[in-house]
Amino acid sequence: MPIHLRPTAALAPRVLLPGDPARALLLAQNLLSQPAMFNHNRGLWGYTGQTAEGEPLTIQSTGMGGPSAAIVVSELAELGATCFLRVGTCGALRSDLALGHLVIVTEALAADGTSRALGADRRIKPDASLTHALLGLSGPDLESGPVVSTDLFYDGRPGQEAAWSRAGAVAVEMECATLFALAGRFGVRTAALVLVTDLRVGPRRRIPDDALRAGEQRLGEVALAAMTRGGAGAGEP
């Protein structure tokens, strides 16, 4: 039995993974019919319900950072989940990325400790078919590229962001490398879609709250469309 998750509803094979528990609730209200609370232990809110297509889906928050995400995803995988799509946030490292844009993660640069402890090399890729499904979607707000995963939200080292950008990262976040590293350990499919909430080049800016809520709704809708398009159905690993 899991230690940190205490399921109070059925777990679906497909799972969306927001970091923020409030985003898990928002997405459950927008994407699921009659959502039931899957977990509330340790403040890691999760919900299971049916999508508009009649397929079961779980939306489970992971908390912040690789260590917390590793615990949640490991326990979900042990419980039987087979397909995971992170729906998180990021800070843009490229000047043409705007607040509210969505970044389809094509690769993670492992600058964090958790993914490296799991055996990740410097770069680690998500599931090809699920990422292909994301890339097959269109919209003026959709971008793609590598991200860098780090342990520190407030990283004040001079030149660090410029170095990440030179290495090819278009954005910085905290969980993708860990999620991708866990895929090999558990034999599951993992991918990621992240919302630009901060601009880290030029004038520093943070997304307003109303735009954040709208972006989170769009994030969930695109992620679910990709899961459906990618053949990650109720019984498909």
Quick description:
The protein has helices spanning 21-31, 66-79, 113-117, 128-135, 160-166, 176-186, 209-229; strands spanning 14-17, 33-39, 46-50, 56-60, 83-92, 102-111, 123-124, 142-150, 171-173, 189-199, 205-206. By secondary structure, it is of the alpha/beta class. A hairpin with a 6-residue loop joins strand 2 (33-39) and strand 3 (46-50).
CATH superfamily: Nucleoside phosphorylase domain
CATH topology: Rossmann fold
Average residue-wise pLDDT: 94
Give the total of domains: 1
In the sheet with the most strands, the strands line up as: 5-9-8-6-10
Shape: globular
Explain what this protein looks like in three dimensions.
It is a single chain. The chain has seven helices and eleven strands. By secondary structure, it is an alpha/beta fold. The protein has one domain (14-229): 3-Layer(aba) Sandwich (Rossmann fold), CATH 3.40.50.
